[in-house]
Write a structure and sequence with these properties.
The chain is mainly alpha-helical. It has 15 helices and 4 strands.
Length: 395
């Protein structure tokens, strides 16, 4: 029994060392595994490190020129989201500035704005926004909405004072229930704090999957698929081959993943509410599941180009949408909700975001953790079966 165990360990070690040599001898794989994973995270953090867009230039067309409209413009200019860069006499001039990208939004106050408010009727403010970036729309919406809410309260206080109601009584009448707007886990509304954690998990998925598929595709070209299996082990159990290759990619990629998810965010001062040990225990099944998933698909591809095509079609934007970060899973059709859990990216992104951004513990992400371990086990079996497929059809 002991001798058999030692032989099995030796076989796994032989596969492990052979696969490590193959990885470092393939220039494309080295670039994907090391250069891409070490360049993408710092690049994303550098681009989005400011997190928020502030003082966005806007143009105001105030056709009313009354006391109320001027107060609205003054408050709008005081918001952190926008800056009133131009005051235009007409809408045509403002639209010209928008087309030339001198401003990103236009606020139009009509001629009857002050008159409508004075007669206790609804005044209208029209906003025209450049939607070439989501942040332009977000800033215009937030800045304008905050000013409108404050203006409604100011206008109602003026009307209450006209009717002889002032002080606490007037404020209670206007706002019988006071509310506070508190944004949990991302109080500043920072773009990087929301976007980058999920994106980094997807980068890990993309690069690891693509690198493994490139290795498999190279071995499969010109009917050389058996190069995946050391000659001495071609007649033996395939689980040793799969386990040896899995340990190789885990040995190489697990430290890189921890560097991308723990150390680099810390260097850029990004919020990390979760414990490092929880992140490690979450990343471990994630890397295993991706590796086995990639080996399963990579082993049965006949050409390297097929893996690149699959990567381009399925493992970028589509997986990001299926992860539930862009669009909530509760609003997804049932079919796509089920399909999303065929990919390790879905539970991996959800679990990591909850740990890193919300301070969740492993017990609070046990559903995502269990899903990853189930995927890891299932795809390990399919990876073994795919090697049997290679042995049968590559002879």
């Amino acid at each position: 029994m002991l001798k058999r165990f030692v032989n099995n360990v030796k076989d796994i070690w032989d596969v492990f060392t052979a696969e490590v040599r193959r990885v470092f001898s393939d220039k494309t794989t080295v670039v994907i595994f090391f250069l891409a994973t070490l360049v993408y995270p710092p690049l994303y953090y550098y681009i989005y490190h400011l997190e928020m867009l502030t003082e966005m230039p806007v143009a105001v067309v105030d056709l009313s020129q009354g006391k109320d409209s001027k107060r609205f413009v003054h408050k709008l200019d005081a918001t952190p989201e926008v800056k009133v860069a131009y005051r235009c006499a007409n809408l045509a001039d403002a639209e010209l500035l928008l087309r030339e990208h001198e401003v990103r939004s236009i606020f139009l106050l009509p001629k009857d704005y002050d008159m409508m408010i004075a007669h206790k009727r609804t005044g209208t403010v029209t906003v025209v926004t450049d939607i070439s970036s989501f942040l332009y729309y977000k800033n215009a919406l937030m800045g304008g909405s905050n000013v409108l809410l404050d203006e409604m309260k100011t206008t109602q206080l003026v009307h209450q004072a006209t009717d002889g109601v002032t002080g606490v009584q007037a404020e209670t009448t206007i706002e019988p229930v006071r509310y506070d707007d508190i944004k949990l886990y991302n109080p500043s509304g920072g773009y990087a704090s929301y976007f980058i954690p999920a994106l980094l998990m997807l980068v890990v998925h993309q690069t690891l999957f693509f690198g493994i598929c490139v290795l498999c595709g190279d071995a499969n070209e010109n009917r050389k698929a058996l190069r995946l299996i050391p000659p001495r082990l071609r007649a033996k159990s395939v689980y040793r081959v799969t386990l040896g290759r899995l340990l190789c990619f885990l040995f190489i990629y697990f430290p890189i993943t921890l560097l991308d998810l723990c150390i680099i965010p810390h260097l850029f001062g990004m919020p990390q509410l979760g414990r490092p040990e929880d992140v490690m225990l979450m990343v471990l099944p994630y890397v295993i599941a991706i590796t086995c998933f990639a080996m399963t698909l990579g082993n049965i591809f006949a050409r390297e180009r097929m893996s690149m095509l699959l990567y381009c079609l399925f493992f970028s934007v589509i997986l990001f949408f299926l992860s539930g970060v862009v669009w909530p899973q509760s609003n997804m059709p049932r079919f796509w909700y089920v399909v999303s859990y065929l990919f390790p990216s879905t539970p991996g992104i959800q679990g990591f975001v909850r740990i890193s951004s919300m301070g969740a513990t492993l017990n609070e992400v046990r559903g995502e953790l269990l899903a990853l371990w189930i995927q890891a086990g299932a795809y390990f079996v399919t990876a073994c079966l795919s090697i049997r497929f290679i042995k049968r059809f590559s002879k």
